[in-house]
Amino acid sequence: MTSPTPQQLAHSGTLEDLYKQLGSIRMGAGWAKPTPSLWAEPKKSFAPFVWSYAQAKGALDAAGRLINTELAERRNLILQNPAGDYATSRTIVAAYQMIMPGEKARSHRHTPNALRLIVDAEPGAYTIVNGEKLSMMPGDVVLTPNWCWHGHGNDGRACAYWLDVLDVPLVQLLEPMFFEPHPDEFEKESVVPNDSPMHFPWADTERRLAEAASRSNGQPAEIALGGSGPEKSALDTMALAMIELKAGQATAARKVMANSVFGVAKGSGTTEVEGAKLSWSRGDVIVVPAWRSHVHRSDGGAVLFRVTDEPVMQKLGFLRNGSAAH
Ligand SMILES: [Fe+2]
After folding, report:
1. Which residues, in sequence order, are bridge partners of residue 153?
2. How far is the centre of ligand 1, averaged over its atoms, from the C-alpha of 76 (Å)?
């Protein structure tokens, strides 16, 4: 069909005739949209879900036998939300990863921000971030922000397992995706720092949680890793926190316009999300999509590691808290 002239459009005899001509010039009639483009409240497009570390560990051990060391940097299991085939939540993807003794995962850098929570590892597992060698022990959190070189290795005697969390779905949506392999394949360490802003050792987390619990009046203690608020969060797009539930404690109901992924750093418990009850134990991962009222409980005590996209929502003016009752 040739492009209609202004006169042909002006003289459309029927709406059908007009729609047909508009279609050929890539214009759509706003009064006859097939689906609405605005709605009253966030849609429930992603589902709350829990993934089992025990199952992931079994599958990763099989992958250790079945795929070679060359693929070690990709020996991971992506936690796919039941609503889709890749992302864990709208903006965040999480994956379990394992590297075997003697293996190295090649260094690279990319624009997506990444972090990891170590689940099981023995001394000798490490990440090199921009030349800094950081040890990876259970409960540690290691950051690799936008465009920082990073690679992993395992000089220990046991397989190392961790949880990766990245903002890849957000970067895919906004499209500033860049990736570069390291020119030397494996970045050499230049320093082994005593203290790095990229590394949150579990011992420090436990000490800070104990201090916070002494001031929390019987409520679950919560600490930020790397600061809170949009200008101070650990990463530009994700804020990190550790939440300790003493035996018998429950969190206050929370409903916020931010997506949350929780890794269980210690203990076991349940998360109630709008009627659904998710049970979890150490190493498991729970996703609570934005705008869902949720409560965590633990009978025996637990520590939850929370990653949220709150800094994104806050910087853009979209962050809001809902009434947690519904
Ligand atoms: Fe990476």
Report:
1. 104, 126
2. 12
Q: Which residues of the chain have pLDDT under 70?
A: 1, 229-230, 324-326
Calculate the CA 205 to chain-centre distance: 19
Ligand 1 centroid distance, CA of 143 (Å): 11
CA–CA–CA angle 278, 279, 282 (5° rounding): 130
In this prediction, residue 193 carries a pLDDT of 83
Q: Cα 97 from chain centroid?
A: 14
How far does the centroid of ligand 1 lie from the alpha carbon of residue 116, in Å?
10
Instruction: Give the distance (Å) from ligand 1 centre to CA of residue 114.
Output: 7
Q: For the residues of 112-134, what is the DSSP string, one character each?
A: S-EEEEEEE--TTEEEEETTEEE
Cα three-residue angle 140-80-60, rounded to 5 degrees: 55
Q: Check if the beta carbon of residue 51 is closer than 8 Å to that of residue 81.
A: no
CA 176 / ligand 1 centre spacing (Å): 15
Taking the C-alpha atoms of residue 276 and residue 223, their distance in angstroms, rounded to an integer, is 27
- Exposed/middle/buried for residue 322 (C-beta within 10 Å: 0-12, 13-18, 19+): middle
CA distance linking residue 164 with residue 60, whole number of Å: 14
Strand arrangement, sheet containing 125-129: 132-135, 125-129, 150-154, 104-110, 179-181
**H or E segment at 65?**
helix 53-66
Distance 157 CA to ligand 1 centre (A): 24
Burial (0-12, 13-18, 19+ Cβ within 10 Å), 206: middle
Cα–Cα distance for residue pair 121/51, rounded to 1 Å: 20
pLDDT tens by residue, 170-211: 999 999 999 999 999 898 888 888 889 999 999 999 999 999
